[in-house]
Amino acid sequence: MKQFLSFVKKEFYHVFRDKKTLLMLFGLPIVQITLFGFAMTNEVKNAKIVICDYAKDQASQEITRKFEANKNFKLQRSILSYHQIEREFQKENVKLAIVFPANFNEDLMHLKKVQIQIIADGSDPNTANTLQNYANSIIMDYQMELMNIQKLPYSINTEIRMLYNPELKGATTFVPGIMALVLMLICVLMTAVSIVREKEMGTMEILLVSPFNPFLVIVSKAIPYFLLSLVNLAVILIMAVTLLGMPIHGSLLLLVAESALLIICALSVGLLISNITKSQQAAMLISMMGMMLPILLFTGFMFPLENMPKALQLFSNIVPSKWYYIIVKSIMLKGLGFAAVWKETLILVGMTVFLLFLSLKKFKTRLE
Amino acid sequence: MRSLLFLLRKEFKQIFRNKALLPLIFVAPIMQLLILPLAADFEVKNINISVVDHDHSSYSQQLISKLTASGYFKLTDYGSSYKEGLIQIEQDKADLLLEIPGNFERNLIKEERAQIFLAVNAINGVKAGLGSSYLNRIIKDYNSEIQMKWINQHGESGNSLIDITSSNWFNPYLIYNKFMVPGILVALVTMVCSYMCALNIVKEKEMGTIEQINVTPIKKYQFILGKLIPFWIIGIFVFSVGLFIVGRLIYGIIPVGNILLLYAYLSIYLVAILGLGLLISTFAETQQQAMSIAFFFIMIFMLMSGLFTSIESMPQWAYVIAKCIPVTYFIEVVRMIVLKGSSFADIQEHFIIMIGFAILLNALAIFNYRKTS
Questions:
Q1: Which residues on chain A are in Cβ contact (under 8 Å) with B133?
Q2: Of A41, A119, A293, the CB nearest to B309
Q3: C-beta atoms of B303 and A117 within 8 A
Q4: Looking at chain B, which residue has its C-alpha nearest residue A177?
Q5: Are strands A113-121 and B161-169 parallel, antiparallel or unpaired?
């Protein structure tokens, strides 16, 4: 036990001596929470639009003013000809163009039927879709005003209640995702690299010839990162609650326990990577290139998992952070207890045991 | 010049000798490009909806069949109480819960207005927002349908109608892949080049082999060029494979604009991003440090560059940060040239800014690189 403690102490020296890495370790979650909490949004705001008005009469001006007043749109300028629209799109400035035909007002009043054309820049499908919806509803509003019949019979009122996240804050989706992402990546990366580094430097050999159990050598390497990750978790949670006003409805203890489970799972992934690679570069590339984007995508907090092809949905099952994400959402936001997440917890435990077993099998006490 | 050639030969030998690294440089990005765009799909389909219908009238049935016929929604549960529906949401089996009160039809006809109740699982912001807006639209459509019927029956015709026709240019069917593939390709090329470049130099530092180079008469700029050129070539290669083989053959994305223009921009961009790698390497003493610094920046780049969310929607301060990231410009340029066929005149500003980045980052790196410690 005393031996083990002194090994852990050695590892802590290694970690704390490297101030730059340490700064990154703690800076990363803070920066991410700030970015996700305040900067990233799925809403579409300030979209630049142009209006191509062949009519320039009362009705077209009124609709134009409505667009001007809407905060989702930023009216660039009015252009005169249809052919200029494509040029405007190509300059990336403009997301939507609205075309009024000539004699717009007259047709509207006398023929009772008139066309407006909305052209969206489809290269960004999501924005295009959203903006078309906004534009549609602005024009429909105008039409309703025109018809001057608010008191139509048979009207259905929809009362919408947003459960768990009444203000539709982006942070609510992102924070559990960031917790999964940061804990997972940092643990995998740091353990893998710190072990492979000893291999590369040749100091591993010295450790292995010591009378100490070789596997405990490795375990002692993981402990500092385990503790650091818990500190990171605390930082994320404190920031989420104080800065972003996120609730923790469920039991904090359970949340921390589940997080500890994910950390252990990630550490075992790191162990496994360190066992199968020989150079730091390879270990890093596997854990960064190979894991960053997949974790970002398959955790399910950026893109809904249900939309993916079946094969990828199946694949997402082996990403531990996916299960953790479900657990965190249930505990933090829905306030559910252990009874609701035991299945996910069991899966995470299973993964961890399997990974540890695998790395134990692969672990070689001899260097060739 | 001759010593530069020797340096280059050394670098290429080192890169191609490392059998563990090669697949990671060449195969991993391509594999990711194959898979990730399939996963990164914002188009929301299959929204699970649970309906609680207390009314069981013809109007409520009509409304429900409208919902299921729209193609966006999947009726997962047809429960009898709100509580039951809420459990569905808690277990993530339903995203939306629609409750139609008991006297829906009677209220609609006698009192001329009726309430329905919609609960949304708002944890998943995208799905909640889109799902409830789709649902609202369908309810509104249904509503105006029955209202129109009423108007026609009561002879109050003659209302003006505005007919809205909408179209999407450059991507008429709104295929999300077309938007994602170029963006992800940029992200992958950026990651490969900046990591590899930073790690490569720091490895020489850590191993001590940089001392051997430092004592030779090789000049600063020769050493840096020797490190830059191999990764520049790798970057071009990975980008080409991604664009022509994966993008074109698998996703059927044929660049609309001028390919030469795209490559001109790519070559400047690579110089800038390799400069960043160099700069990181001058700050780091160990590979672990270099990696954590690179990771820190790449993470911010990925999230802020407009790869996933549009930068115009960000608050002002975040927009300014996004504009200080080279990746932002390249993602924009690739999408502009590949999807919209923008010409040089449209992106000259982007060119000037990227040249600025390239000069600034490399100048800082060379300034910071010391042959003696």
A1: 133
A2: A41
A3: no
A4: B124
A5: parallel
| pLDDT of chain B, 373 residues: tens digit per residue | 788 888 889 888 888 887 777 887 888 888 888 887 887 766 666 788 888 888 888 888 888 888 888 778 888 878 778 888 888 887 777 888 888 888 888 888 777 778 888 888 877 666 777 777 778 778 877 887 777 777 667 655 555 667 777 788 888 777 778 888 899 899 989 988 888 888 888 888 888 888 888 888 888 888 888 888 999 999 999 999 999 988 888 888 888 889 999 999 999 999 999 999 999 988 888 887 888 888 888 888 888 888 877 788 788 888 898 899 999 999 989 988 988 888 888 888 899 999 999 999 999 988 887 765 5
> What CA dihedral angle connects B200, B203, B207 and B212, to 10 degrees?
40
Nearest to B191 among A289, A297, A333 (CB): A289
- What is the tally of helices (H) and strands (E) in chain A? 15, 5
pTM equals: 0.79
A149 phi and psi, to 5 degrees?
Answer: -130, 90
Closest CA to A200 of A286, A281, A287: A281
Contact B328, B176 (CB under 8 A): no
Contact B270, B334 (CB under 8 A): no
Considering only CB atoms, B291 lies closest to which of A124, A133, A193, namely: A193
Across the beta sheet with B161-169, the strand order is A73-79, A47-53, A96-100, A113-121, B161-169
Structural domain harbouring A320: 8-40+169-362
Q: What is the ipTM of this complex?
A: 0.76
Residue A219 class from Cβ within 10 Å (0-12 exposed, 13-18 middle, 19+ buried)? middle
Same domain, A81 and A32: no
Q: At residue B105, what is the residue type?
A: E
In a domain, A156, yes or no: no
Domains in chain B, ordered, with CATH? Answer: 2-40+178-368 (no CATH), 47-153 (3.40.1710.10)
N-to-C CA span, chain B: 26
Would you call A288 and B291 a contact, using CB atoms and an 8 Å cutoff? yes
